[in-house]
Write a structure and sequence with these properties.
Blueprint: E1 5-7, H1 9-16, E2 21-24, H2 27-30, H3 37-51, E3 55-62, E4 65-68, H4 72-81, E5 87-88, H5 93-99, E6 103-105, H6 107-117, E7 121-123, H7 134-137, H8 142-149, E8 153-156, H9 165-174, E9 179-182, E10 201-203, H10 206-218, E11 225-228, H11 239-255, H12 263-274, H13 278-302
Parallel strand pairs: 1-4, 2-3, 2-7, 5-6, 7-8, 8-11, 9-10, 9-11
Antiparallel strand pairs: 3-4, 3-6
Bound molecules: pseudouridine-5'-monophosphate and manganese (II) ion.
């Protein structure tokens, strides 16, 4: 094991026994939702993973250590500290390790740590992507590069249309990252089941997805893949509601000159405020849905 990785006792045991494990990220806790819903959601995700036969490995950087599997107290700490914890992507890891500081891991950083621990499947809500004005700002999430180079399958509900979903799909295609729709041909757009864009391929069962992951490994390809799982019908939001909230949030970001890694958290918080919490409820439900599917895939990989 890499010298910077610390496994929790439960993860250590699950790895030894070859049990299914799924990774969970921590930026979604610190920057993706308000307290206390962030902490409650993170703890519920762990319970849902276990109910579906997989050990949850929530990942974060604590005092410079890459922690795989957190205690309830550590999750509470990240939830309470919220945006005051450093949002940590690939570029932040060396600095945080050297200075023994804390960081909440993005999809990219969580993939890196999961791969170091030998975890192949990871559940989250939404991934980063190509931002709408990327032609001018060059704002493209490091999550996409990570998907191209780190062997972890990420289960998400698509991406929020704070991003340019068409350009995000093009980027992933260029990088050779398979984007697989679970029981759908269409890329889901986080709060809605439809986006108007097609995924690269469709898979109808966890076994089907596990077979694709195995083939990617036996080919010796370095990267991961994106499994897009539409939000359950009963939790989906009306498109008009979400579109207008996103437009307003994008305008606010432009006016206030938000840039760099602050962009995504700013837009997420803006959308949440403008939909008076409706989007938070949907967000929580889609994460649960993704945890369940990720656990089924992790089990299928062991079968
Ligand atoms: N999109 C969401 N919810 C999130 C994030 C993105 O719908 O919580 C978080 C994830 O941790 C993701 C990160 O990896 O934001 C991407 O940030 P950036 O765009 O700065 O790469
Ligand atoms: Mn960015």
């Amino acid at each position: 094991m890499n010298q910077h990785v610390i496994l929790s006792p439960a993860i250590n045991l699950a790895l030894e026994e070859g049990k299914p494990i799924i990774a969970l990220e921590s930026t979604i806790i610190s920057h993706g939702m308000p307290y206390p819903q962030n902490m409650e959601t993170a703890l519920s995700c762990e319970r849902i993973a276990r109910e579906n036969g997989a050990e949850p490995a929530t990942i974060a950087i604590l005092e410079g250590r890459l922690c795989v599997g957190l205690t309830k107290k550590q999750i509470e700490y990240l939830g309470k500290k919220g945006q005051n914890v450093r949002k940590a992507s690939r570029r932040d890891l060396p600095v945080l390790i050297a200075r023994r500081e804390d960081g909440a891991t993005t999809v990219a950083a969580t993939m890196i740590v999961a791969a170091l621990a030998g975890i192949q499947v990871f559940a989250t809500g939404g991934v980063g992507g190509v931002h709408r004005d990327a032609g001018k700002t060059m704002d493209i999430s490091a999550d996409l590069e990570e998907l191209a180079q780190t062997p972890v399958a990420v289960v998400c509900a698509g991406a929020k249309s704070i991003l340019d979903l068409g350009l995000t799909m093009e980027y992933l295609e260029t990088k050779g990252v398979p984007v697989i729709g679970f029981q759908t041909d269409e890329l889901p757009a986080f709060y809605t089941r439809e986006s108007g864009y097609r995924v690269h391929d469709r898979a109808d069962s966890p076994d089907d997805i596990a077979a694709i992951i195995r083939a990617q490994r036996t080919l010796g390809f370095p990267g991961g893949m994106l499994i897009t799982n539409p939000i359950p019908r009963e939790n989906a939001l009306p498109r008009e509601l979400i579109d207008s909230a996103i437009c307003q949030a994008l305008e606010d970001a432009r006016e206030q000159g938000i840039s760099g890694k602050d962009v995504t958290p700013f837009l997420l918080a803006g959308v949440m405020k403008k939909t008076s919490g409706l989007s938070l409820k949907a967000n929580i439900q889609l994460v649960f849905n993704n945890v369940k599917l990720a656990a089924q895939i992790a089990r299928a990989l062991k079968g």
